[in-house]
Design goal:
CATH topology of chain B: ABC transporter involved in vitamin B12 uptake, BtuC
CATH architecture of the largest domain in chain A: 3-Layer(aba) Sandwich
Shape of chain B: globular
Number of domains of chain A: 4
CATH superfamily of the largest domain in chain A: P-loop containing nucleotide triphosphate hydrolases
Helix content of chain A: 25-40%
Number of helices of chain B: 14
Strand content of chain B: under 5%
Number of strands of chain B: 4
Largest sheet of chain A: 6 strands, mixed
Oligomer: heterodimer
CATH architecture of chain B: Orthogonal Bundle
Structural class of chain B: mainly alpha
Amino acid sequence: MGRELLLEMKGIVKNFPGVRALQGVNFSVAKGEVHALMGENGAGKSTLIKTLTGIYQKDEGTIIFDGREINPKTAIEAQKEGISTIYQELNLVPFQTVYENMYLGREPLNKFGKVDRKKMIQDTEKVLGDLGIHVDVTAPLLTYGTAVQQMVAIGRAISINAKLVIMDESTSSLDTKEVQVLFDVIRKLKAKGIAVIFISHRLDEIFEICEHVTILKDGRLSGEVSIEEIDQLKLISYMIGREAKKLERTKGEYELQDAPELARMENIEQGMRLNGIGIDIKKGEVLGLAGLLGSGRTELAKVLFGATQPDKGEVIWMNEPVHFKSPKNSIEKGIGFCTEDRKVEGIIPHLSVKENITIALLPQISKFGVVSKKKQNEIVNEYIKRLKIKTPSPNQMIRNLSGGNQQKVLLARWICMNPKLIIMDEPTRGIDVGAKAEIETLIQELASNGISVLMISSELAELERNCDRVIVMREGKNLGELRGLDINQNAIMETIAAAAGELEKEGGLNE
Amino acid sequence: MNSAARNKEDVIVMMKQYSAFILLALMLLLNLFITPNFFRMGTLWNIISQTCTIILTGMGMTMVISTGGIDISVGAVMALGGVISGMMLDKIGLIPAILLAIAVCCLSGALAGFMIGKLKVQAMVVTLALLMGIRGVAQLMNDGKIFYIEGELAESYKLLGSAKIAGVVPVQLIPIVISVAVTWFILEKTILGRHIQAVGDNPRSSMLAGINTAKTLMFVYVYSAAFAAIAGVFASAKIGAADGNSLGLLAELDAIAAVAVGGTSMSGGRAKVFGTVVGALIMQLINITVNMNNITYEYAQIFKAIIIVFAVYLQREKAS
């Protein structure tokens, strides 16, 4: 083999009531290796990681770490063995300072038995400095963005002598530049002989940073190869188990010049984020909003949906000025909004798939406030079938579904309303390739039925494939638009880059 | 071995779901052995007449807690309801007096709902303020003295506490059945019920799904106050007096305990109407067991404490 193994998991089985989540999985990581763990949502990645980090207890199998068998019962036990996890949602304390977070739960004491803050500050600066991160460690953690917060979490892992760092979707909330900083840090970890398990849905990242890849499918091992022996297409086929067709743009020239206008926003201003932006959406159009993190895309969508109020500006819906005081108003007019953060702003976790699908539709399937069970079941069954939602039953709690299936439930919530416009904010974030293709097909289907889609995505390729027109945003302004075949990743990036100079000249950057 | 492991987990899930019922069964079994003459109809009628106020306030509390809130003003609202209906009885008649009591108490609920739903003040603080304020109002209404219910209509009012249907079944069964049926119907069958549980589970998602969260919260606090008022009427009718000072004192604690033991999630989202009923029965059963065995009442409180902690422990959710 030539690989000196740090971690060896053999025959791991994990059952949940009614589900066999892991069915005898083997997984091994070599010392100082960056190892990608891939798989569709529901393939068993998180379950595997959680059995390793002590959050779940495996039912069968053995875990050998650093030469001896371990059996962590809690996350702390795993941490003591040298396994640290950097979660997607960081479990740090935002109001405490950077250095306090670094030493959370293991504060060093000075000789008087008091917390030794000086040592904490110095050590934190050193650890972060080694990673190339220079920040004021005495500032509260929340003063910094997600990227720095992650670095703190990684620094924390290093300072407790982690031998293995697990990064679960760490890049999903970072922009391109921040991802590069993270990758530099990963390379430094590697140089220190620390192994990294890297979980990401962005294939490009896997190829850029990882040396080895293990792919799971339906709770089983689907493939384990060195990265040199595999290409993107092959990797996708391991994940979805069929020859993957590379996703391609299905649309041609822009054809909606004469289509009637559905909605228009004019001179929208809101705090620092939106600076007099205007957009328009035509009937049956897939309109993309492109831009870096913080360009105001989500904020603009929320104004349109009535979830927040603009300071200034006008919204025109079907040629009439409107004022949506709350989402209730806009939903009544035929707008739906699939939010970016499914957990916080999408699902209602303990309610069933059924209730989650119909929560906005209820008034239409009720008489005198009493919900018709029959109509509800009909609609729910129809959409579970139509969107191929994988759930053991419509009565299953939505939190037990995989991310991709949760997203489909949320899409079903709006599609069953017969909307005129669906806003989709990062519709494929954290979703596996298979479900992604299904959702993209669905977007085209909606558009061909005359439903407009406002699509926000950080994946430029996704915009290129799906949109009739893309509006490029920066600093809450509309930089220009691309139509039809002119939409491509380079053009979008060039538009964003070209605007940097202009905005600066106007002094717009710092406003 | 595998299926055995799965069976075990399924059993645990079942245990959780029906923990309140299992506890109730265990308590009945215990009484079978230790309490002489326990299994007589008389005991059942006793339980019914005594759990009435806990169930009434418990129904409102189930709704409130499902939205992720809490209403600790129910005891004070009970006092206000009892005092108003008792004092107004001779002035405006039986039914109008009761309706007036309910209406005034609903105002208190509306105020709570407005503060919590619209102004986003914490439920605990708002209802704590109401607990003090409303109790004060109830006491002031008769200058801090006990109001003895007398006069022409007193007898018919007192029937609400003592009447027996068909000569045996206590009249309290009627409000119990109605309150449980209405609460169950709203929570399980209506849009409102789904909105209540959705708001409790994830208020942000609910708002973005077009739910008027403020209105939903407003409703549950008014509902809770209305049933507290009715509980106050029945409680004062039973005693034949309305004491602004002691009527419904600590009733909020019994109601919360019944909801907790019944398995409604304290963090909101899942309402268990029948669980609350069972929770109320368990609380009352402890009183009766202690009483019939001539054990001092103080022990009942200790048993209750143990049961509450045990029940909530059983239902706790594993960190996910």
